[in-house]
Prior knowledge:
Blueprint: H1 5-26, E1 32-34, H2 35-38, E2 39-41, E3 47-56, H3 68-80, E4 95-104, E5 113-120, E6 131-138, E7 144-151, E8 153-154, E9 157-161, E10 164-168, E11 173-182, E12 196-200, H4 205-219, E13 224-226, E14 231-234, H5 243-252, E15 255-257, E16 263-267, E17 272-275, E18 280-281, E19 284-302, E20 313-332, H6 338-346, H7 352-365, E21 368-369, E22 371-374
Parallel strand pairs: 16-22
Antiparallel strand pairs: 1-15, 2-12, 3-4, 3-6, 4-5, 5-11, 6-7, 7-11, 8-11, 9-10, 12-14, 13-14, 16-17, 18-21, 19-20
Amino acid sequence: MTTHPLNIHRRTAWIALVATLLLAFTLTAFGQQRIKDIANLEGQGGIPMVGYGIVVGLEGTGDSPRSLFTNQALGNMMERFGISISSDRVRTRNVAGVMVTGTLNNFAKPGQRLDVTVSSLGDARSLQGGTLLLTPLVATDQTVYGVAQGPLSIGGFHIEQGAVSIRKNASCVGRIPNGFLVEQSPGKTLEDMENIQFVLNDPDYTTARRMADAINTAFGREVASALDPVSVVVEKLEDYPGGTMAQISDLELLLVTQDVEARVVVNERTGTVVIGADVGISNVAISHGTLSISIVNTPVISQPGAFSQGQTVSRNATQIEVEEQGTGVVVMEEAANVGDVAAALNSLGVTPRDIIAIFQALQQAGALRGELVII
Length: 375
């Protein structure tokens, strides 16, 4: 049996591609990330779902009679079980109306189970100990993809006794692990994709171009191109060993050096300062000092002599102390990386909140090579 020369050429090309991929997997360079960590497949973000349900089994912490939608929903549910009752006569605090939300995977199959989040809609004080009754969840196209039901897992608690109450975290929001049962599949398959398109989590021109170059280098030919700072399109190869599934898997494992902006993030409320790796400082001289003023009032009492019929006099003796701490003028040489910046700031001997003021002044002086973000 003879083998066609074209098949031998294709087999050799695929062997070379697999060898390139294995080399990329094993030689992980510093600062490189897998494509699956910095980008997602277009259209694979999932399908948002929502539904209205009832949580029962609460210990008097449910909705009050003012929550009319809960009373009406409870009355409608009881009628389905053959119990006729007017919704305006429902009086129970063991029930709460909730909104149930979740995200359905685009390739989900019937029988698969997913987590859902349950949030109070009325004036319930706590959902602790409650159980969600059968609740259908719909997507934006009003398609019912499945039902949710089960006991809630609450990450907090709310205990109230008289005028005293203790609360930890949010007790009106909970989750049901594996509480959603998929009954209808979205019907999407890999064969429906005309090409493979990745969407970057952080849009960037340089990162998109590097991703396309890394894919082309691994495949040995032009199969990928960067459309814009967000999208990288890869040709779907019909003769790829293992099909489209294997091609996507191999693409996700390729390594790309993500390019990020030089940025300093400052949280003034907590005094937190995070300096990016590419932040630099130009030659600049800094003088930073702290002025400390201390005012102490000491009571001084003067008493009259015996049998003088005088009065006791009380007055305050005020003592003011002023202390100025500082390092004088410090010349900071040009810093090319975050280590140099940290060393230069440490030489000033300042606190994190002083560092925030220094960075703001550096930006105003044009000496900060990076973006200052205050949150």
